[in-house]
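User: Run a structure prediction on this.
Assistant: Running it now.
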Amino acid sequence: MKILILNSGSSSIKYQLIDMPSEEVLCKGLVERIGSKEALFQYKTAKVNVEETLQINTHKQGLQHIAALLVDSKKGIVGQANEIQVIGHRVVHGGTTFSAPTMVTPFVKDKIKDLFALAPLHNPHNWEGLDLAEEIFPEAKQVAVFDTAFHQTLPFKAKKYAIPNHLYDEHKIQVYGFHGISHQYVSRATINHLNKPKSKIICIHLGNGCSITAVVDGVSVDHSLGFTPANGLIMGSRSGDIDHSIIFYLVETLGYDLKEVNRMLLKDSGMKGLTGFNDLRDVQAAAEKGDIASDLALEMNAYRIKKYIGAYATAMNGLDAIVFTAGVGENSSELRKRVCTGMDFLGILMDDGANEKREAGIHELHTSDSPVKILVVPTNEELEIAKQSFKLVSLIT
């Protein structure tokens, strides 16, 4: 069964065509920096490797370019669109309606649209991917896999806010958690690598969006993102944790409009607000050239992560491993080093030489005598979505 996985992020699209159940990747690629005149497009099969810089203004343009190459007479991997039997979609926010993979119907699409306000950087793009996929691949079954599902196990003490109870009871204002597909895949891979089903793991997902999850015995028990994917760690353009009174000060004292504040916190804050760059590669390059603001931003980023590690180790009453994953977590030895430096009291001892090596697959960064394991585990949200989509479609056919 050929399953096309579409993973639309806030400024990117990752995609893979996977044959299930063999898990053979027939094609994979990436569209980065959507909205830029220099968007990066990658498309790779066993015989073809396309890498180009294009002006891709919207996610829709990126998806159309992907679809065209998949069925291209010379570069394509399938002869006709109907050879792709299932489209598996990453959807960021499922609210309380969706706690498991779901076949896409008009009702499901409407519910995803209802949640736009809770994940404005993601759900609209996820929905657009669904809509376009139905148009381009009308015979394929469409499956939505939700980032919030893995965090359904959060205990009430972790998911409830200290606000009037009726807001939870009537409106379900709570911690939902995000990046769950990644955290689920990475935590399971870590448990298998360590051969430790009974374990206390902190998964650190660092990309343009960032989050950190406490995982006990494979189950999510706490998580940094909340009602929306906006709080917690410092992100590419999102502020992460702030004092909510700042919002009222900006509006009531400084005269900002609420829409301006919302845009500021989601699209003009984080690393972008601190440095002018929302891509960590650019921040690191500037810091290496002596830019003080960029160096401080990296320190702030690492410091925020350290605080969450300490809190989650305490909440779990122990720690077996910390795991770095996603684009920044897997590739930035600089940020990993800043996070792990000065954490020896928790038993986190990094081998600097191992940290600087670039290796494929899971690799260990801790010293031989480190009580806590430090791992890089490449995430594979696409494979996780393919597994869940294949399982669901197999059950109903």
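Residues 80 and 363 are 39 Å apart (CA to CA).
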